[in-house]
Amino acid sequence: MNNLVERFLRYVKFDTQSDELTNLTPSTPGQMVFAQALEKELQQMGLADISLDENGYLFATLPGNCDHPVPTLGFIAHMDTAPDMSGHDVKPRIVDYQGGPITLNAEQGIVLDPAQFPELNDYVGQQLIVTDGTTLLGADDKAGIAEILSAVEWLQQHPEVKHGDIRIGFNPDEEIGLGAHHFDVERFGADWAYTMDGGAVGELEYENFNAASARITFRGLNVHPGAAKHKMLNSIRVANQFAIMLPRWETPEHTEGYEGFYHLISFQGTVEKTTLTYILRDHDRARFESRKREIEHLCHKVNCEFPGCAEAEIKDQYYNMREKIEPVMHIIEVAEQAMKNAGVTPRVQPIRGGTDGAQLSFKGLPCPNIFAGGMNMHGRYEYVPIPSMEKASQTIIEICKIVAQK
Asked: pTM of this prediction?
């Protein structure tokens, strides 16, 4: 595990924010730059079957060393970081955390405070990797990449530990819901896999949101405001009317657990044209479908008052993987036992989000999600405890051991 932290600190220097507006795969050039650097690292490690395709999907194999048939395992992580905040010129630093607030940026008054983020209290006495408060960190999911490669390196250095073939997959564009779109499950060739993309130590997840995006466009009519009576139609005002018709309490800041939501993520407009972009989320498939119908119903109400003004484009993104994991629950049992072997208490819980594993499960590769250790992802207060990363890497090793023994 000596190289785990060094790997992570090196990886976060790559600017790999994804961008849903480019319609490219990978959606940003920085992801391919990172993939090419990882490809060279895999070659230096001496792994087999290394391939990097034109879409930025990087696969490799650590060949097994067992004398009996063993299932082929996959471990997957994504290379992109969230578009929510800059991932350019990340300046990570290691803090020996002894409790209390951590000043990330004195000049700008940016402080990581347990009063706001009480989970910090769980990591007193540990080393944390934090940001300088001006960017995200990138533990989501470069911690996962570092953990996978460090586990593979450990297995290479300990040939006495038996394991089957281990497939490694690094993909782009998870943060914009497209990470599995061009993932060739047949070519990957694993019997099942795990995404190393969870949060706090111990997380094990095989339930996630059903997810859709909704883009509602409002068309207005602009005339001089001095002569606008009974003529002007202000699309900004109509869009605002639409937004407040949605349930006030069904938003991310008012929900938890299995509760779904409507989340307004973008509002762009002029008098002539305004666009609202939402993400819709719910663990329950029936309620998920109801949320999509509600968007269409409210558009119809707007058009009854302002004919032809509103138009909705709704796209499904991914579905709850639970229905694909329940028939193969032994892969969850393996992960739980591996965590226990690594000294971690498993915490099985639903994901209030999604992972590439959801789409991969529906493409025929059962793929639950395991913790990578990152906290407060997608923002300036992101951090990752080094012991959590070490435990994640040890969990990978223990999974390989258990599967080989069984």
From this structure: 0.87
